[in-house]
Amino acid sequence: MKRIMAVGVFDLLHAGHLHYLEQAKSLGTHLTVVIAHDDTVRVRKHEPVTNHDLRRRMVEGLKPVDDAIIGNPPEVPIFDILPIVKPHIIALGYDQEHAEESINRKLRELGHNDIEVVRVEGLSEDLDGTRKIIARILDLSQKK
Question: How far apart are CA 28 and CA 37, in angstroms?
Answer without folding.
Answer: 25
